[in-house]
Amino acid sequence: MENLTVIMQQIASIKLTDILDIVLVAFLIYMLTPLFRTTGTTRVAKVVVVVIVVSWLTDVFQLHTLNFILDQFLAIGLIALVVLFQPELRRMIDHLGSMKFKKIFGVAKPEQEMQPVIRNVINACEDMSRERVGALIVFERDNRLDEFFKTGTQIDAQVSTQLLRNIFFPKAALHDGAMIIRNGRVAAAACVLPLSESRRLSVDLGTRHRAGVGVSEATDAVVVIVSEETGAISVAVGGVLKRHLAPQTLERLLINELCPEDTNQEDGLVLKLRQKLSKRDKEDKHEK
Q1: Cβ neighbours of 148 (radius 10 Å)
Q2: Which residue, 8, 99, 236, 242, could crosslink 212 as a Cys pair with Cβ 3.0–4.6 Å?
Q3: pLDDT tens-digit series, residues 37-80
Q4: DSSP 8-state symbol, 196
Q5: What pairing do the DSSP bridges indicate for beta strands 178-182 and 135-139?
Q6: Any idea what the Cα angle at residue 24 is, between residues 23 and 30, rounded to 5°?
Q7: pLDDT level of residue 267 (50, 70, 90 thresholds)
Q8: Under CATH, which number does the domain 115-287 receive?
């Protein structure tokens, strides 16, 4: 009974400011959690957690010398983190700066219709896969890719199958590099992306695949890759590479990643019918 009385007294002593404080902290943790899904920010978090835990253990076991060294490290730890993890911290700040407050508070407007864009990209990837033409297509989402825009050529054009094929044509001036699609339009081409240093990637993957995985590790972008050697189509999301995708699988993946939830609930029978009609059109073209 005494414990229950103490608990009731503590609950009764809670003020409105205390509730507001708890809500704001919970909201901040909820918004910062996605930042630690990428490899770079995970490294920063691991370093901070390890140093704090080791410092606490040295204090518990009275390891005075080691505890003194860790205390000195923590005293200048902020400066050390800024110096050592400058690229990762910059990406975290960019992510926070690119957050859409309307989306945060649940009043975001529906995103631009992406189905026609996805369809044109898939058609172009099918053609380039068959012709063994390499391609690297980046769909920008919440994280802005302005730092990569500077390395390429800005275009601002409507997405079409012909445009994509012309840009990645081996002898074209802009074929060597990545194309960035922003808000359903081709925003830039011939962009240079960071290479992934992940050891999980197969040794047979070249620069194009490593660049696609690299930008997906650093941002929330969706990256479509067509291999110049094999013609295989792959997609990189969140540092994970999915290889050897069929056009139908690619379409479902892009719709799930790029389209709002309220607009990608397409009836299964309609989807199958559309795929059959598309297949029949292609067969008719081959017969002609």
Answers
A1: 22
A2: 236
A3: 554 556 666 767 777 788 788 888 888 787 777 777 777 766 66
A4: P
A5: parallel
A6: 90
A7: very low
A8: 3.40.1700.10
d(CA 143, CA 236): 15
Q: Which residue has the tokens 């996605």?
A: 34
Query: Which of 152, 142, 150 is CA-nearest to residue 219?
Result: 142
3-state DSSP assignment of residue 186:
strand
Instruction: List the domain boundaries for the chain.
Output: 2-104, 115-287
pLDDT in tens, 2-49: 677 777 777 777 778 878 878 877 876 676 665 555 545 566 667 677
Tokens at residue 123, please? 């058609």
Residue with tokens 């901040």: 28
How far is it, in rounded angstroms, from Cα 226 to Cα 54?
A: 46
Give yes or no for a contact between 242 and 235, defined as CB atoms under 8 angstroms apart: yes
Q: Establish how many alpha carbons lie within 13 A of residue 261's alpha carbon, considering only the half-sphere containing its beta carbon.
A: 1
pTM for the model stands at 0.62
Calculated CA dihedral for residues 80, 83, 88, 93, nearest 10 degrees = 90
**What's the pLDDT at 252?**
93
Q: Provide φ and ψ at 214, rounded to 5°.
A: -60, -45
2, 125, 137, 239, 253 from 223: Cα distances, Å: 60, 12, 6, 10, 11
As a whole number of angstroms, the distance between CA 198 and CA 131 comes to 29
Question: Are 137 and 185 in contact, with CB atoms under 8 Å apart?
Answer: no
Question: What CA–CA distance (Å, rounded) separates 155 from 137?
Answer: 14
Residue 8 CA to residue 274 CA, distance in Å, equals 63
Pairing of strands 185-191, 153-158: antiparallel
Among residues 49, 50, 55, the alpha carbon closest in space to that of 69 is found at 55
**3-state SS class at 176:** coil
Position 129: which residue type? S
